[in-house]
Amino acid sequence: MAGEFQRSKLTGMFLAFDTDRTGHLDQADFQDLAARWHRLPRVAGDPALTDRVSEVRLGWWDHLSAAADRDGDGRVGLDEVVAMVDRLPAMLDYVNATSDAVFDAVDENGDGRISRAEHRRLVDTWHGQEVDTADVFELLDRDGDGYLGRSEFALLWAQFWISDNPADPGNLLCGPLPG
Predict the structure, then answer these.
(1) Coiled coil: which residue ranges (predicted)?
(2) Average pLDDT in the 37-44 region?
(3) 179 occurs within a structural domain
(4) How much of the chain, in percent, has pLDDT values that exceed 70?
(5) Into how many domains does the chain fold?
(6) At 76, phi and psi to the nearest 5?
(7) What CATH code is carried by the domain that includes residue 140?
(8) Is residue 99 situated within a structural domain?
(9) What backbone torsions phi and psi does residue 113 show, to the nearest 5 degrees?
(10) In a domain, 178, yes or no
(11) What pLDDT score does 128 carry?
């Protein structure tokens, strides 16, 4: 069962994903999210990556609705999302595939690393608006090389979705946590 910290973190995610501000998630929200990600320069210029991003984003709606839409109304509320998080450790292959697609979408210059500026675009794209990331990148960049490599990013991504430990840096991957 998700703890209080994880619920707070997922509330921020839920608000970012609820693109039409209805208080629930539905397939249209995930279509809007995919369109948001399609505007990233690397995604917009690569039809195969565009398809991959769409497949991952809409695939998460399929997983979420199948697992959490208890009443079958095509909508998922925050409590249903929170209940879903307990299943994520058993879905690591899909979590990792999502991490790879997000990494490739954000790695604008294709150098195999995410810079501070690329991370900032990830956060802004995630939220659909500019977000003050302050010193978040320093906390994520554990080796201090100024970049997030693919394996570093994958660990942070898994922590963001699965961790209930406030000390795990991955909790900040998609920006500062709600106050």
Answers:
(1) none
(2) 93
(3) no
(4) 98
(5) 1
(6) -130, 125
(7) 1.10.238.10
(8) yes
(9) -140, 150
(10) no
(11) 87
Q: Is the pTM of this model over 0.70?
A: yes
Q: Which residues have a Cβ under 8 Å from the Cβ of 123 and sit 6 or more positions away?
A: 131, 133, 136, 174, 175
Report the C-alpha gap between 73 and 96 in whole angstroms.
29
Q: 19, 35 in Cβ contact below 8 A?
A: no
The answer, yes or no, to whether residue 22 has pLDDT greater than 80, is yes
119's tokens: 């991370």
Of residues 66, 136, 63, the one with CA closest to residue 95: 63
Residue 18 sits in which domain range? 4-172
Q: Give the separation between CA 56 and CA 60, rounded to whole angstroms.
A: 6
Amino acid occupying residue 174: C
Say which amino acid occupies 158. Answer: A
Identify the pLDDT of residue 133.
Answer: 86
> What are the b/e assignments for 87-124, b being 16+ CB within 10 Å?
eeeebeeebeebbebbbbbbbbeeeebbbeebbbbbbe
